[in-house]
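Field log, afternoon session.

UNIT: design team B
ACTIVITY: writing a sequence onto a fixed backbone
BACKBONE:
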């Protein structure tokens, strides 16, 4: 009887030891993974900060030009106006902060703007955001809205392409010598006696 009682106590102690061992292993694994994740994050953050101390591309300047335009479509006593308020945006990129020479590292091969969302306090009118011909900056020109896939720029990488370029299309030079030219516009239609 006494031997049977000792066996039961040993089995209980063994089960408790196994449970403690399993809990200890999971706790160690959780703490180890967490600390390893922190170290990896720290190393990646330091590497990212070091690489970005001297970035290849920098925004040199941003020019904003805001204005409005009204088109009178009236043909009689009723005033029929299309009013547009717009802001032209030109973003100049400096790609020569590391080197004055043009190389594969400091040229643009692909440029696009996506995930576009325009927020306005007004629910009326049409909101438009799209590429704008940089030669028409500050001038009112009707634009179509961007497509759902965003704005994809045609990157020109040769003088031959420049000679036949149509600046009414989304154009950007591979050497960043022209600005990224955009327009935000809100158009409203009014009828008034």
């Amino acid at each position: 009887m006494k031997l049977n009682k000792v066996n039961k106590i040993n089995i209980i102690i063994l089960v408790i030891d196994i449970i403690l061992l399993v809990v200890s292993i999971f706790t160690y694994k959780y703490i180890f993974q967490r600390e390893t994740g922190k170290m990896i994050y720290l190393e990646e953050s330091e590497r990212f900060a070091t690489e970005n101390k001297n970035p290849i591309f920098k925004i040199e300047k941003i020019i904003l030009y805001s204005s409005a335009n009204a088109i009178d479509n009236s043909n009689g006593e009723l005033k029929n106006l299309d009013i547009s308020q717009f802001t032209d945006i030109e973003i100049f990129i400096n790609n020569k902060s590391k080197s004055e020479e043009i190389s594969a590292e400091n040229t643009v091969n692909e440029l696009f703007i996506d995930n576009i969302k325009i927020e306005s306090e007004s629910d009326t009118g049409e909101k438009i955001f799209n590429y704008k011909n940089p030669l028409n900056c500050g001038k009112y020109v009707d634009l179509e809205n961007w497509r759902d896939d965003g704005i994809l720029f045609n990157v020109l990488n040769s003088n031959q392409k420049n000679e036949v370029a149509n600046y009414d299309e989304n154009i950007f030079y591979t050497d960043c010598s022209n600005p990224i030219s955009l327009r935000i516009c809100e158009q409203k239609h009014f009828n008034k006696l």
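LOG NOTE: The CA atoms of residues 78 and 170 lie 39 Å apart.
NEXT ACTIVITY: expression trials, pending approval
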